[in-house]
Amino acid sequence: MEDILLLNSIERYLEGQMLPDERSFFEELRRNQPEIDQMVVEHKLFLHQMHAYADKRNFKEQLHNIHTTLAETGEVKSSDHAYGFTGKVIELWHRYKRVTAIAASIACITAIFISALAMYFSPAVDPSQLERLGRDIEQIKKNQQFTNRAINDVITSSKVPKGAMLKSGGTAFLIDGKGYLVTNAHVLTGSGAIVVDNQGNEYNSRILSVDRKLDLAVLKIDDHDFKAIKVLPYAVRRSQPDLGEELFTLGYPRDEIVYNMGYLSAKTGYQGDTASCQLSLTANPGNSGAPVFNRNGEIVGIISTKQTQAEGVVFALKSNNIFKMIDSLKTIDTTFKNIVLPLNSSLKKMDRVSQVKKAENCVFLVKAYN
Amino acid sequence: MKSDTNEQLLLKGLAHNDSKAAETIYKDNFNMVLAFVLNNNGSYEEAKDIFQETMITLYEKAKTDSFVLTCQIKTYVYSVSRRLWLKRLQQIGKTASGIENYEETVIVDDDLDLQERKNEEFRIMDRALNSLGEPCKTLLEAYYIQKKGMSEIATLFGYTNADNAKNQKYKCLMRLKKLFFTQYNIGE
User: Fold this and answer.
1) By Cβ atoms counted within 10 A, which residue in A130, A142, A151, B9 is the most buried?
2) Inter-chain residue contact A56 with B34, CB threshold 8 Å
3) What SS3 class is residue A336?
4) Percent of chain A with pLDDT over 90
5) Are the beta carbons of B8 and B22 closer than 8 angstroms?
């Protein structure tokens, strides 16, 4: 109770509510009793703090009210307006642009890294490293000009339709005596093709099927002049070729049939491609589609590409791909049902000259036109 | 010179709790601070917070006897808000690179230090008051903050007379003082 009375007096004293008599009495008390003096000082500080606190709280409330009023009257931007003004998206963008940039860079780097990995591990063919051995139109034109006079009558009786442009050329070989031929898909860039035998006789042919992925195509000679061959002298081998096997090929890098020989230097093709194998022999544009024989007269592959930076590195599609393609065609189309691939070679134990003599009749020059 | 006198009047009004003056200053400066905060990684609410803290700083500065404002209100408000916002960004760990100066700034470090101390005292009083419990808290708030008279408080709280209310008030006040000074002395 004492304390309360004292506090009451102190507060009244500090707020100037005391009467003059009481005031001088209290001041006397302060002077004589240091504890009371101390209490007065302390309370003064406290009251000062209290007033500052009250002031600030009131002012805060006032600000809050002002904001609400001004936002309502639209004199300051309300939160909806502010977003509308700078745009929510812009605001978000400002806020997260750093994060977005980092995320985008990471995505970018990851994408590049993954595509680099994919490129590194895939055995994809690098086109710049490989040269397809099809003959392009320029060369055919030149050759035609060159042999113009010599085979003038042949040109006039050419089976290429009038007005058609020769597009590309290559080599094809019979896989069935009834007139079925196999060549590379990249040889047939045009819409139709004629084939020419080693005597220069031309025959009309139809493109039956083209498999761009395997790079294989099947042609059928469709001409009265063509006489079916009962038994093909060579065989098409189903099994894999052996490393070091001696090989030879017959093709048309020029209008004349050309013989070449070499050996199997690797069981896989360019960058480990298992569908093809690597040969060591010389091949030139026009050799595409040429059969690769082993010394028993079995076709083990089809010449398709060569490496541009290395001499004598030629890649041939393995012959088992012919089986694969014909087998799958048989399931799709009945017209392929009567194709019988030759499995026995009659060229065994013959000398090379006789082998070539027998085989060359079954190897044709292909001229694709548009 | 006319605008200068205008500004002096506004500040005088602000110091004397003239709500019209506070409103005018608020109206003239809020959008600027809002734009600044929004353009520097902030939200609307954060801008409002920063601006009101700036207003309090200005208010308390205006109330001091030795108060002289050597620049325009706008410049002062921008400077304080800018400093406060940069500090806030630093606290929440956001980088504040590329903050452009829209306006000229003045050095307000001393004012902000003083303000920081005052905010600390405010927090101590706030904590003490809040840990006081009812009815003491409401009673003291009614007397010291809403500045109600003792007899009014007596009727409001249901005391039979003003003296009883006063008695109760002093009891509460003594508890509050105790709470406040424990905190206050630790704070120092």
Assistant:
1) A130
2) no
3) helix
4) 15
5) no
CB-CB neighbors (< 8 A) of B26 in chain A:
63, 66-67, 70, 76
Choose among A4, A54, A75: nearest Cβ to B171.
A4
**CA B166 → CA B58, B119, B134, B158, distances in Å?**
35, 30, 16, 13
CB B151 within 8 A of CB B157: no
A 10 A CB-CB count for A103 gives 11
Task: Locate A368 and state its tokens.
Answer: 């694709």
Nearest CA in chain B to A53: B122
Q: B17–A58: do the CB atoms touch at under 8 Å?
A: yes
Question: Domain extents for chain A?
Answer: 2-120, 130-370
CATH 2.40.10.120 at A130-370, yes or no: yes
Reported ipTM: 0.82
**Closest to B144 measured CA to CA, from A51, A48, A10:** A51
**A221 bridge partner residues:** A205
Distance from CA of B30 to the nearest CA of A (A): 7
**What tens digit of pLDDT does each residue of B91-147 get?**
877 665 555 566 667 777 788 888 888 888 888 888 888 888 878 888 888 888 888
Radius of gyration of chain B (CA): 20
- How many helices (DSSP H) and strands (DSSP E) are in chain A? 9, 15
Q: Backbone phi, then psi, for B162, in 5-degree steps?
A: -65, -30
B105–chain A nearest CA distance, Å: 23
How far from A362 is each of A254, A307, B69, CA to CA, in Å?
Answer: 17, 28, 108
The answer to whether the pTM exceeds 0.80 is: no
A-chain CB neighbours of B173 within 8 Å are 7
Residues within 8 A of B (CB atoms), A 48-67 only: 49-60, 62-64, 66-67
